[in-house]
Each structure stands twice: as C-alpha cells, then as structure tokens.
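Hi there, hope your week has been kind to you so far. Do you reckon you could talk me through the fold, stretch by stretch? I've dropped the whole record in just underneath, so have a look:
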Amino acid sequence: DAIGVIPTLLKTYKNPETETYTQWTLAAIAGILTVVAVPRLDWALIIYPLYVILANGSIVSLKYLRERKSR
C-alpha cells in the first residue's frame, strides 16, 4: 500500500487538478476515527491507521500547496 501512494503523490505534484479534496480528506478522517476507536494504544493496532492519516493527509496538503503556488 505504501508503494502505491508514491505514484499518486507524483501525479498530484505534477497535476494537482486531477485529484479531489473530498476523497482524500474523508480517507484521512477515517484514519483519525480508527485511531480514536482503538480500545488501547497498541502499535500493532494503530500503525496502519496512522499511515492512512499520513498518506492521505500528504496528498491533500500537496494538492493544496501546488494549487496555491500555481495561482
């Protein structure tokens, strides 16, 4: 999964208009809710949701920064 986000980040960098905020923001929020729902702080239970937050948040941030720069 982590390898699969690399092409998306590259595409978002080159063509930020090809991605939508809704999809990636909702996925990041899902990761946050998953971390909150974990009954005990155990790395085995929260490492993947943290990755989801980081990966999807990176896409949203990159899209925002690239669109802002192009204005």
